[in-house]
Amino acid sequence: MHMPIDKKLSKVDTLKTAIEYIHQLHAMIADAPNVSTAQPSHNPCITISTQDDPCAKLTISWHRKPMEYGSAFRDQMTGATKASCSKVWIPGV
């Protein structure tokens, strides 16, 4: 779903878009033919590649601090940590 930059979404539309995005990520991971998961360690990750474009890969990594819920990913181009979030609740799942 692409929205113009100057349009502000309502809270409901923002949540619907976020849920749709999460479902798309879940479908991509579930349907991926080549999924490799790192061994449990301090920095687990999942790498997904497809037969359509073997050069294109998606890597998702995460970490959790004791007593906190959070996730982050590292930008492969810059090496910078990009995001963290709290618990995610998906209605109906």
UniProtKB/TrEMBL annotation:
GO molecular function, one term: protein dimerization activity
BHLH domain sequence ranges: 1-25
PROSITE patterns: BHLH
InterPro entries per record: bHLH_dom, HLH_DNA-bd_sf
Transmembrane segments annotated in the record for this chain: none
Pfam family, one: HLH
Protein name as it appears in the record: BHLH domain-containing protein
Organism from which the protein derives: Steinernema glaseri
Lineage of the species this protein comes from: Eukaryota, Metazoa, Ecdysozoa, Nematoda, Chromadorea
